[in-house]
């Protein structure tokens, strides 16, 4: 979608076609100057930005719901619980907590520093770049934005060009609610993003695929820019023999099909015994029918695939293993039916890439141990799920695997707890955010020691030359438990 | 032939076995580190003396003689390090003070802190819950990343190897340590003696120069901790990006030292000279250059001379308390800097001894080499500014430094500089004391680095913080309200619960 122009947006077709012209320089320069002026430092300024965000959400609720409906066929309810309310909660939390988070944090002192003032000061990094994806285009833009603004940074937001309607709202409406000397939205596809990444930022926050995550980190390395990467992977879902199949099926189906499966933390595949499978499949069918009716395509509660390319990718996956539930698709509607596949081999495409659609393969294992080995042979996922009535089973899975996040007997509800850090590990990412973790992510924690300008007699002891006597005293003092008498 | 593949494979298998997970294992490793320091103190002091060419009275020590023999091929230094110092007795270890303080004690303190706090740090951290998760167990679990690579430099070769190592081991990782090949004697002790104190299935030292390090970095690690210069930092991060490996980079820069007109010149001179000349200036957080008014300069320079004379005598080259430059290459680099500006104090050098005198340069231009690169030697340029504002602008025009120093009797001045600049760490009216507080995070910002460590920050750096939510099975009736199809009534109930203020509540 070219030619989107609006306050704060940069997408001039003329510039695009002129080789060598950098469309971002002016914008970035402007934001850097604003940061240097110190404008974003005061709590009042930051609170004003957050209040602006809050008003943006409240005053455009209907527009935002329509936007998400057009991009992803999201029902208003889904938009509310997975995007709008989550954003609002984050904004509210930041507003409530801003002064506390901003405060200097005094730290414990040792003997030598008793008379000093020692604390950690939180400072903004400066110019922050936020690159966001298409699957939760509002949430995944605004929640990092809350943290970056609360921490006092200037921000460049580059939303995904694939969720076109959300991109437009963020480019044309959002900037009006923020101080535009300190905030800009830039637009473009992979090529433009590559050019953007050639510039120096003070922090880069990226949500997307591991493949692009590597590109972002490599670009950041050129400027020694710290990064948070929220990536993805295949999130395993182990279903123990000892469980209630219907309860499990409800939860697995709900979280798998939410947003038509286009969720980085959705259960990606099930691991269970053949016996469990026999009980789970009918329960899954029952859940799907209860949720979406006999003809899921006509349910208002089931989303659609973002675009043709992903639709084709998912349609191809439907031929892996054997379809036991669903399997239908409709290109004109970018519709994929809630589908369960069985007899799936580890080598098939559906077990190779992150699915990101309403397709759930079931892979058989013969024991918990085998399931754990299966999981540990693969890349560390963003999320890991275990369903079992036995807390021992849940704890064993927790103890013997690693993942960004973990849930026992539940789906990705933990996302809504701002007191939990949301993060990946290994290939599923680095760094974390949500709640205070966002503020901390976008802040430099500066170690500060304010010493007395006088009292030189006390400090004299550390200077050379060292008499035998002083040497002994100092060595003794240094040898004392946790005492540094420098 | 890949010299590292087998070692890395072995360590990965050990990690997968779960061996490093229990607190007992980790405590045993930390205790091993502690014994390594205590039982080899003499050896370490000698190695450090040899590497950084500090005067050592114990020339009759067999260890020292042995090291000298082995080293004579590879080492480019020669000269009076073998000659007994006229003022030292055989039993005196005066010169070891720096090593004692800045390498051994600091490392020992970190180990002790980790041992005391290990279980507290390892514990699951419960978090506050919302309405929807009231019945659940919600906590953060600290997990080791797996295979950690620590790349350490030559200037504090023990401290900057062991400090991160403490954190990595406490966090339950397997570790590959690559010490600097430039501090050869310490490298040797770390490679040959240290592993004997640790479980060698989970710890390895690898050796080599830039080329071998490049090959090492082609491998996948689960965390990389690097201390060194920004240029190599970029190489490390680029290599890490290929595997999506998180990194902490402790880099460097030019640490400004603003000296206000309102101060006691002698006190300031003591502190600046001491911290500049410590370890012959080869400290990443040393004050690199002074910013002050011309008036202040005229008071400061004589005070600096006085301090230097008091500390190191009239002939600093014969002081047992002044270090030497690490090698020929850095010596030449520093000697080149001596021709910048005008020498007001010192300026002497002796190639055969890798000695650079404590030097103060004035009339220095911003464009001269001494103001372009990190000095890393006992040379202190003074740049004049006409006001505090000008000093702040000067600082902010440049890369964010690892440390920033302000000397002033006025706390307003100190606070203004703090508020209007950024740096890794900051100290008002003293040198790099903030290093000694394990409760402060030690790290850079911008081109001086990313990430931090020391104390608990080390443990957290080397741990993945895993968000966990455990729900009791059943109770499906409560949670059924969230499933489609969504009747208007269900919707209202849910939205009401979610929309509730100050509750941050979602009934998902």
UniProtKB/TrEMBL annotation, chain A:
Highest taxon, organism lineage: Eukaryota
Record domain Aldehyde dehydrogenase: where: 31-444
Region spans: Disordered: 1-23
SUPFAM superfamilies on file: ALDH-like (SSF53720)
One Pfam entry name: Aldedh
Keywords, ordered alphabetically: Oxidoreductase
InterPro entries on file: Ald_DH/histidinol_DH (IPR016161), Ald_DH_C (IPR016163), Ald_DH_CS_GLU (IPR029510), Ald_DH_N (IPR016162), Aldehyde_DH_dom (IPR015590), Aldehyde_DH_NAD(P) (IPR012394)
Residues forming the catalytic site: 230
Assigned protein family: Belongs to the aldehyde dehydrogenase family.
Stated name of the protein: Aldehyde dehydrogenase
Gene: LOC110129395
TrEMBL record, chain B:
Record-annotated active site: 250
Record carries keyword Oxidoreductase: yes
Keyword annotations: Oxidoreductase
CDD domains found in the cross-reference section: ALDH_F3AB (cd07132)
Tree of life domain: Eukaryota
Domain Aldehyde dehydrogenase: 108-464
Cell inner membrane in keyword set: no
Family assignment from sequence similarity: Belongs to the aldehyde dehydrogenase family.
Name this polypeptide is given: Aldehyde dehydrogenase
């Amino acid at each position: 979608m070219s030619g989107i122009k609006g306050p704060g947006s940069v997408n001039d077709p003329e510039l695009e076609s002129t080789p060598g012209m950098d469309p971002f320089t002016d914008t970035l320069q402007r934001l850097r100057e604003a940061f240097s002026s110190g404008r974003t430092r005061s709590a009042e300024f930051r609170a004003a930005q957050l209040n602006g965000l809050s008003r943006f959400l409240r005053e455009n609720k209907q527009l935002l719901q329509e936007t998400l409906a057009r991009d992803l066929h999201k029902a208003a309810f889904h938009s509310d619980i997975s995007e709008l309310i989550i954003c609002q909660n984050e904004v509210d939390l930041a507003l409530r907590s801003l002064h506390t988070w901003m405060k200097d944090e005094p730290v414990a002192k040792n003997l030598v520093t008793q008379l000093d003032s020692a604390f950690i000061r939180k400072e903004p990094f400066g110019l922050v770049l936020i690159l966001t994806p298409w699957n939760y285009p509002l949430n995944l833009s605004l929640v990092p934005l809350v943290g970056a603004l609360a921490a006092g940074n200037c921000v460049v937001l580059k939303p995904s060009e694939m969720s076109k309607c959300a991109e437009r709202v963020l480019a044309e409406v959002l900037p009006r609610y923020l101080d535009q000397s300190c905030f800009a939205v830039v637009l473009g596809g992979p090529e433009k993003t590559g050019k953007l990444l050639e510039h120096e930022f003070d922090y880069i926050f990226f949500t997307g695929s591991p493949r692009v995550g590597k590109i972002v980190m490599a670009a950041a390395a050129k400027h020694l820019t710290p990064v948070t990467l929220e990536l993805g992977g295949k999130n395993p879902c182990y279903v123990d023999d000892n469980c209630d199949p219907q309860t499990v099926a409800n939860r697995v189906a709900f979280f798998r099909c939410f947003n038509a499966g286009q969720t980085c933390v959705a259960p990606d595949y099930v691991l269970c015994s053949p016996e469990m499978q026999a009980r789970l499949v009918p329960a899954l069918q029952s859940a799907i029918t209860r949720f979406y009716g006999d003809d899921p395509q006509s349910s208002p509660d089931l989303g659609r695939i973002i675009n043709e390319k992903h639709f084709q990718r998912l349609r191809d996956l439907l031929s892996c293993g054997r379809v036991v539930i669903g399997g239908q698709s409709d290109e004109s509607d970018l519709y994929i039916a809630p589908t369960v596949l069985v007899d799936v081999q580890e080598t098939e495409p559906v077990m190779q890439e992150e699915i990101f659609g309403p397709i759930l393969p079931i892979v058989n294992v013969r024991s918990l141990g085998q399931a754990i080995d299966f999981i540990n042979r693969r890349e560390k996922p963003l999320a890991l799920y275990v369903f079992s009535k036995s807390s021992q089973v849940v704890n064993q899975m927790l103890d013997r695997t690693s993942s960004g996040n973990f849930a026992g007997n539940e789906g990705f509800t933990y996302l809504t707890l701002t007191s939990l850090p949301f993060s990946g590990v290994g290939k599923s990412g680095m760094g974390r955010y949500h709640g205070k973790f966002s503020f901390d992510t976008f802040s430099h924690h500066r170690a500060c020691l304010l010493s007395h300008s006088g009292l030189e007699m006390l400090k004299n002891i550390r200077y050379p030359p060292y008499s035998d006597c002083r040497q002994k005293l100092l060595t003794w003092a240094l040898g004392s438990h946790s005492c540094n008498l420098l």
